[in-house]
Design goal:
With 477 residues, this protein is an alpha/beta fold. It has twelve helices and 15 strands.
């Protein structure tokens, strides 16, 4: 397993803290100019730290949304609340400055006085924000919060966008002096997806070497998609932990359904998907649906069978596990598969070597000459089926896309190429170029018509070009 390395991407960090339901996530979404954190009227929706880049006045920084904070450990009445509090304190310790958010409707409460004193002891620059000041008339409500002993208050309305420009100016004023830092959150984006309670957050924490995501036996603990910059083997990544994806009929709670939708949406901005399975169960129907969704989204896929330590010793045979999976799910038999334990770290030493191979395949460049040699060999071994007595001729192929790779094959009748033959060609090309774990996209098009304005010499040369013809295919008379 790779040792934990630098994870902050080199940008200054702004932590957003406060009691539950004061509007931290709404403010976070405004600052990063995207709906990255789930917002709901129910308190305690945000549980983990959520990170996203923001920019203002030419300065880039990372915003960190945190869970609702219980200032006193005795007030953390549940194990989950205590873990949320611990996450918030860690976010403050790792930040360069802090935004402490109050609720104008609720007024100042004793718990928030404790929070202000704790932040003062942290030694970090702190901006005190009073949220839900939706109209100018409500600004008089801000005065009550000076009783906490703060010198300056920033009235805002995250819901309506009021006061945000002054807040952004204040944030930039608290940041450390600008230095040379990489822009944004660079690196290959790895989405960790799977059913609830298969160990996605445990895997994230094991890779990072710390508890970045909250882990409990309760399914559905993670609700947001959490982005974490990470470096392994000298290569940059962004690990995205997501909510568990249940079957739609079993997703009853509104927040859980929102998190599952967000998890599927995460595939749209990921490069590769680490699909986590429960090794004690194998690949279930819902696992197969998730893999299919990742493939439809055009993402590279690595299967990760977690909880390998919980498999009985007499059945702990990775080769047999792979063979059984291939027999039950032949469509996914060629995907890279690792048997690991996020709990003990077993098998994780191989993970990023497999990820690098999938990453290289995802961004592969397929030389045109070699591509056509492979195409010709495939057609000679098995010609396209004739349609209505007329052969389908394949002329040539060229790469027309990357991430994932896409190949366009020019044919005499592209609409007549059968699905089974397209699947055959896809398999031959993927095998020849070692595109493991990557959905190669094959597109068939008609050969462009000759341009009458081209010089005669070129037109003659075009007439002499021959299609790629398989064995047994009739010759043109």
């Amino acid at each position: 397993m790779p040792a934990r390395e630098e994870v902050d991407g080199g940008l200054p960090v702004v932590a957003i803290v406060g009691r539950p339901n004061v509007g931290k996530s709404s403010l976070f979404n405004r600052l990063v100019r995207a709906r990255r954190a789930i917002v709901d009227d129910e308190p305690g929706v945000t549980r983990d730290r959520i990170v996203a880049p923001a920019e203002h006045g030419g300065r880039q920084f990372l915003c960190v949304d945190t869970g609702g904070f219980a200032a006193d450990a005795s007030r953390a009445t549940s194990a989950l609340a205590a873990r949320v509090r611990e996450q918030t304190l860690r976010a403050v310790a790792e930040s360069d400055c802090v935004l402490c958010v109050f609720d104008a409707d609720a007024g100042l409460i004793p718990e928030e006085r404790d929070l202000v004193r704790r932040l003062a002891r942290s030694g970090k620059p702190v901006g005190f924000v009073v949220n839900k000041v939706d109209t100018p008339a409500r600004e008089r409500m801000v005065a009550d919060f000076y009783a906490a002993g703060v010198e300056r208050l920033l009235p805002v309305s995250a819901a309506h966008g009021r006061g945000l420009e002054a807040l952004r100016d204040a944030i930039v004023g608290m940041l450390p002096p600008a230095g040379i830092a990489p822009a944004g959150m660079p690196g290959t984006r790895l989405a960790i997806v799977g059913r609830p309670n298969v160990g996605k957050s445990s895997l994230l924490n094991r890779l990072l070497g710390e508890e970045r995501a909250i882990v409990t036996p309760e399914a559905g603990t993670t609700r947001d998609a959490i982005d974490t910059p990470f470096t392994a083997g000298g290569r940059r990544y962004v690990l995205i932990d997501t909510a568990g994806i249940r079957r739609r009929a079993r997703t009853r709670e509104g927040l859980e359904r929102h998190g599952a939708v967000r998890a599927l949406g995460t595939l749209a901005r990921a490069d590769l998907a680490l699909v986590v399975l429960d090794a004690t169960e194998g690949m279930t129907d819902q696992d197969a649906r998730i893999v299919a969704r990742a493939r439809e989204a055009g993402r590279g896929i690595v299967l990760v069978a977690n909880k390998w330590d919980a498999v009985p010793a007499e059945h702990r045979d990775a080769a047999a596990f792979r063979k059984k999976l291939g027999e039950l799910r032949p469509a996914f038999a060629e995907l890279p598969l690792l048997c690991i334990s996020a709990q003990t770290g077993e098998g994780l030493g191989e993970l990023f070597r497999v990820v690098v191979r999938a990453e290289q395949a995802y961004d592969a460049v397929l030389p045109t000459a070699e591509l056509n040699r492979v195409l010709q060999a495939a057609v000679e071994a098995q010609a396209p089926p004739s349609v209505r007595g007329r052969p389908v001729r394949l002329f040539y192929a060229t790469q027309t896309g990357r991430r994932p790779p896409q190949v366009t094959v020019f044919a005499s009748a592209p609409q007549d190429v059968s699905t089974s033959y397209a699947r055959y060609l896809t398999g031959r090309l993927a095998q020849a170029f070692r595109l493991v774990g990557v959905p190669l996209r094959l597109v068939f098009r008609a050969r462009p018509r000759r341009d009458a304005t081209r010089p005669r010499r070129d037109r003659v040369r075009s007439r002499r070009s021959k299609p790629v013809r398989g064995r047994g295919a009739p010759r043109r008379r």
